[in-house]
């Protein structure tokens, strides 16, 4: 089965990481051939090409420039006419709105992979509603519960994103990372590794860290770089807040990194206190795979990932409660190590790449599609 994935490709986050993982793990399901069509050339395109996937460029699209949309749709139509694809999967509302009419016109089974909770209010969602998909794949049960905002008459399958467990790193490498980030060998390292968006709860984490006082055992690494102008301003505000809270000697802004797994291996726990629901939370699974307990808010898809055996869930936007939870994990090394020991098994149970790729293939094989009186199974 040959499947074309359609996406924008201008940023790099959870969806991009999932696409790269599927590309790297194609051998887990040899009968599933993967192609990807992108509107932007960048890191995602490079990593997919390095993994041996055929990447088709549709051309940059700007919503403010309708001719760019028409051009991309024309290129996609030519691609679908020239190549044979058995299914087309559009990731997120923007990509689906762009590609769905063209795929439908080409007579190819059409899937929408929902990576965000749908509200029906955003202009991309209203645009996407014009074409009903043959099947929706949701990245969590939380996301699946919102699909009715797109269509009330469509089948939904929940498939957690495949996530590769990181390689093992030696104690020597762990100490080298800490030295690079000016961190004591005996410090408890709290890490946050995610996009630089305000809803990820950086401010809540900093407020909780400030409340820890002068306890000497911890350091915090904030991993992530700005990908938009608004994120650049946000990072500057976080750095200023760190100064105001007198945390500059405890908090390290590591920026965007291509070696996140290496940094996770040198940390002790991950904390991401979201103030809005995470649709799923690939960063949580990556941290669990690296053997880190996860502390996050009791919201959205995170509740499907984190349990009492591998981390802690706290109420959102509550720095006092978060401070208490972090202090407990800093002080109680035995508890922290027990949670860490359970973490990799939890990551494998949820997002083992071979299992999830095979689940996707089974889903695509089983779907029923009807159009113009013709039925495919």
What does this structure look like?
The protein is an alpha/beta fold and about 375 residues long. It folds into 2 domains: about 1-160 and about 355-375, Glycogen Phosphorylase B (Rossmann fold); about 170-350, 3-Layer(aba) Sandwich (Rossmann fold). The chain has helices spanning about 15-25, 45-50, 65-80, 90-105, 125-130, 140-145, 170-180, 200-210, 230-245, 260-265, 280-290, 320-330, 335-350, 355-365, and strands spanning about 1-5, 35-40, 55, 85-90, 110-115, 135-140, 155-160, 190-195, 220-225, 250-255, 270, 295, 310-315, 370, 375. The two termini are about 15 Å apart. Residues about 370-375 have low confidence and may be disordered.
Provide a quick synopsis of the model.
This protein folds into 2 domains: 2-162 and 353-376, 3-Layer(aba) Sandwich (Rossmann fold), CATH 3.40.50.2000; 171-351, Rossmann fold (3-Layer(aba) Sandwich), CATH 3.40.50. It is 42% helix and 18% strand. It has 14 helices and 15 strands.
Question: Quick one: CATH superfamily of the largest domain?
Answer: Glycogen Phosphorylase B
What is the element string, with H for helices and E for strands? Answer: EHEHEHEHEHEHEHEHEHEHEHEEHHHEE
- Quote the average pLDDT: 93
In helices, the fraction of residues equals 40-55%
CATH topology of the largest domain: Rossmann fold
Q: Whole-Å distance between the termini?
A: 13 Å
Major pleated sheet: 7 strands, parallel
Q: What's the structural domain tally?
A: 2
Q: Nearest-angstrom radius of gyration?
A: 22 Å
Strand content: 15-25%
Question: Under the CATH scheme, which architecture of the largest domain would be assigned?
Answer: 3-Layer(aba) Sandwich
Quick one: how many beta strands? 15
Which class of secondary structure composition applies to the elements?
alpha/beta
Low-confidence stretches: 370-377
Q: How are the strands of the biggest sheet laid out side by side?
A: 3-2-1-4-5-6-7
């Amino acid at each position: 089965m040959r499947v074309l994935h359609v996406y924008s490709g201008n940023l790099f986050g959870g969806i991009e990481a999932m696409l790269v993982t599927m590309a790297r793990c194609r051998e887990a399901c040899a009968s599933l051939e993967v192609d990807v069509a992108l509107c932007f050339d960048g890191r995602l395109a490079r990593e997919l090409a390095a993994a041996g996937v055929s990447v088709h460029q549709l051309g940059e699209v700007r919503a403010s420039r309708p001719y760019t949309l028409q051009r991309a749709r024309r290129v996609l139509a030519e691609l679908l006419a020239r190549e044979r694809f058995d299914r087309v999967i559009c990731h997120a509302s923007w990509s689906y709105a762009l590609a769905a009419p063209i795929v439908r016109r080409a007579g190819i089974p059409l899937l929408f992979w929902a990576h965000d909770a749908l509200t029906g209010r955003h202009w991309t969602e209203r645009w996407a509603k014009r074409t009903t998909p043959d099947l929706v794949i949701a990245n969590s049960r939380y996301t699946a519960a919102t699909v009715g905002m797109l269509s009330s008459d469509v089948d939904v399958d929940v498939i957690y994103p495949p996530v590769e467990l990181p390689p093992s790193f030696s104690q020597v490498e762990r100490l080298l990372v800490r030295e690079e980030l000016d961190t004591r060998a005996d410090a408890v390292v709290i890490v946050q590794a995610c996009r630089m968006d305000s809803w990820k709860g950086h401010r809540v984490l900093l407020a909780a860290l400030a409340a820890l006082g002068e306890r000497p055992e911890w350091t915090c690494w904030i991993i992530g770089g700005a990908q938009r102008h608004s994120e650049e301003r946000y990072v500057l505000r976080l750095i200023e807040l760190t100064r105001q809270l007198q945390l500059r000697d405890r908090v390290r802004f590591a920026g965007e990194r291509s070696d996140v797994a290496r940094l996770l291996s040198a940390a002790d726990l991950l904390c991401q206190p979201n103030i809005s629901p995470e649709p799923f939370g690939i960063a949580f699974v990556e941290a669990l795979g690296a053997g880190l307990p996860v502390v996050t808010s009791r919201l959205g898809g995170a509740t499907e990932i984190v349990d009492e055996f591998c981390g802690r869930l706290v109420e959102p936007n509550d720095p006092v409660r978060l401070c208490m939870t972090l202090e407990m994990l800093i002080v109680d090394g035995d508890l922290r190590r027990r949670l860490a020991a359970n973490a990799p098994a939890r990551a494998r149970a949820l997002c083992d790449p071979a299992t999830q790729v095979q689940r996707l293939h089974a889903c695509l094989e089983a779907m029923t599609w009807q159009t113009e009186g013709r039925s495919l199974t």
